[in-house]
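Appendix B. One record, verbatim.
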Amino acid sequence: MFKDTKAFSGFSVDDLAAAKAFYADTLGLEVEEVPAGLTLKIAGGNGTLIYPKDNHVPGTFTILNFPVDDIDQAVDELTRRGVVFEQYETLTDERGIARGISTGQGPDIAWFKDPAGNILSVLQTP
């Protein structure tokens, strides 16, 4: 039934203007204003819808992952742009990177939040 459907994802925010500034200016993504909110133009697929919601509650899970070639470089650049990485006591190093490749536990990954509190990540796979 959905084999040829061009599905897309979406998530809510509590401040559309703050989301637009963050995704366009801080992350450097192409953001288009649409009647329902914003569309993120992400390489390799359909856009991701960002829509306003007055009673928005951020997810407790990663809503968007950005694969990168070099996680250290990505974390450094995003930190320079004002992004603060999450610290998980037994999981991440002082920079907020969980080093999964070296331990055989998955990708190297670092989590951060958008202005609405939604969790995003950059990750490097082997």
